[in-house]
Amino acid sequence: MLYHPSAAVEKTPSSAGLAFDPVAFAVTDTGTPRLKGWWIPATQEPGQRLLTVLYLHGQNGNLGGTVDAVALLHAAGANVLDFDYRGYGESQFARPSERSWRQDAEWALQYLAGTRQIDARTIVLDGTGLGANLALEVAAEHPELAGVIVDSAIADPTSAIFNDARAHMVPAHLLVQDRYDLDASAAADRVPVLWFGRADAAGAMQEPQAYKRIAAQKMLVRINPAGVVYKQTEDALSRWLDERSR
């Protein structure tokens, strides 16, 4: 009810003209990688503090649907690690859950630190949809990171489960452990936050309750559907990432 993974990865960064390396990490005791994804390197300018973005996609599809989003991050001058959670794409099969997603994100951070030798202080988490909830949750546990980007976070993701008629036939609140508590993660966050929200047709958007709970440096960007959404997102990303790289 909450997760909708797909196995076939139908699009790669090459479709956006991006050079990338397929990567596999988080190996089992037998040497089998649990997670697969893409490493998309940026070109570093002399004297530049190069940032690396760990991209956490949403609950639907797989990383094949993230090409446009990671192309924006690359255009803003950042390295990007984009990967599939277990149960998605070509990563190891497993039933998705909040616990497994958290572990997968931790393995990705360990890969960046251990294999890529990247300083945690130059890593930014970027999540969309349920991945945005995850990004804020992980960031709350890692105050050493450079920042977190929250795009279209879901205020009450488990309503998709508990409001389903089928959930009334079983003790769903006891069986389902996932919560993705956005308010709690926001209150615990200590790294800079860039928060994207979608305005309505009239251009209005209420300040999210979770956003109000963030005590760290924060920036709220209202994306107006009447405007050029791609350009709005690109401009905000570039400005915010530039501040983090100084």
Key terms:
alpha/beta, Rossmann fold, 10 strands, two-stranded parallel ribbon, 246 residues, eight-stranded mixed beta sheet, 30% helix, 21% strand
Summary?
This protein is of the alpha/beta class. The chain has helices at residues 67-75, 98-114, 130-141, 159-162, 172-175, 182-188, 209-212, 229-244, and strands at 4-5, 21-27, 33-40, 52-56, 60-61, 79-83, 123-128, 147-151, 193-198, 218-223. Residues 167-172 have low confidence and may be disordered.
What report would you give on this structure?
There is one protein chain. This protein has 246 residues and is of the alpha/beta class. The longest helix has 17 residues. The chain is globular, with a radius of gyration of 18 Å. The termini are far apart. The protein has 8 helices and 10 strands. The protein has a single domain, classed as Rossmann fold, CATH 3.40.50.1820. The chain is 30% helix and 21% strand. It has an 8-stranded mixed β-sheet, with helices on both faces. Helix 2 crosses helix 3 and helix 3 runs parallel beside helix 6.
Quote the CATH topology: Rossmann fold
Separation of termini?
A: 42 Å
Tell how many strands the DSSP assignment holds: 10
**With helices defined by DSSP (H or I, 4 residues minimum), what is the helix count?**
8
- Identify the CATH architecture: 3-Layer(aba) Sandwich
Name the CATH superfamily assignment: Alpha/Beta hydrolase fold, catalytic domain
Order of helices and strands: EEEEEHEHEHEHHHEHEH
> What characterizes the major β-sheet?
8 strands, mixed
The percent range for helix content is 25-40%
Level-1 CATH class name: Alpha Beta
Given the helix and strand composition, which structural class is it? alpha/beta
Shape estimate: globular
Quote the beta fraction: 15-25%
Question: Order of strands in the sheet with the most strands?
Answer: 2-3-6-4-7-8-9-10
